[in-house]
């Protein structure tokens, strides 16, 4: 966040996100409504199990071993200057698929903007891990909001009134970052 607004042509903006129960997806869509750009959801070659306990266990193992799950999603990163990265907190870390994405793509010289939903325990180490993967990028202040809590049977929580509140929060965050998309002016 410098002295001048970051004016960005919408076709140079990518919003890439991971979402299992659609909370992070809801934030991605709100951001897209504000700034435009391309939206891509991260998909794995081998999807995670549906069962909550099974995915928690698998993610814990992957976090422990550093395993990077292969992605089905392909992105031509050279087309973009500004990359929004959206993800839930998983095991108080950046989810393995987003680690895969960051390992597979060189974001040097680009503006990187993380956003997150979580079950109420915050971002954990996720934003730090994004920064570590992007030493030569301009990593802006991220956005985080409470989403669902699958553990407690709460799936999509960012809907109705909570969606409107989230929209307000996203708007003021983007204003603070001074991100303006040319297509939206
Ligand atoms: C495997 C797994 C691990 C999770 N670990 C955490 C956690 O460590 N801290 C937290 O606050 N929420 C945790 N959650 C809850 C999610 O971060 C929260 O529900 C988020 O809004 C989900 O985003 P989504 O709907 O885009 O998938 C976890 C959820 C899953 C499925």
TrEMBL record:
The keyword Signal applies. It holds the Pfam family Flavodoxin_4. Residues 13-178 form the Flavodoxin-like domain. The keyword Signal applies. Keywords: Signal. InterPro entries: Flavodoxin/NO_synth (IPR008254), Flavoprotein-like_sf (IPR029039). This is Flavodoxin. It comes from Arenibacter antarcticus. The lineage of its organism: Bacteria, Pseudomonadati, Bacteroidota, Flavobacteriia, Flavobacteriales.
């Amino acid at each position: 966040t410098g002295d001048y607004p970051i004016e960005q042509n919408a076709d140079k903006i990518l919003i890439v996100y991971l979402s299992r129960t659609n909370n992070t997806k809801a934030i991605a869509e709100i951001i897209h409504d504000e700034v435009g750009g391309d939206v891509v959801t991260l998909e794995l070659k081998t999807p995670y199990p549906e069962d909550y306990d099974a995915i928690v266990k698998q993610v814990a193992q992957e976090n422990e071993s550093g395993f990077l799950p292969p992605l089905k999603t392909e992105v031509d990163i050279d087309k973009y200057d500004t990359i929004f990265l959206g993800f839930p907190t998983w095991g108080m870390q950046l989810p393995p698929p987003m680690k895969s994405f960051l390992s597979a793509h060189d974001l040097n010289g680009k503006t990187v903007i993380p956003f997150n939903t979580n079950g109420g325990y915050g971002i954990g180490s996720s934003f730090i891990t994004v920064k570590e993967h992007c030493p030569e990028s301009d990593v802006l202040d991220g956005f985080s909001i409470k989403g669902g809590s699958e553990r407690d049977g709460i799936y999509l929580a960012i809907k109705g009134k909570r969606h409107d509140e989230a929209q307000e929060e996203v708007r003021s965050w983007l204003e603070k970052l001074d991100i303006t998309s040319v297509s939206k002016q």
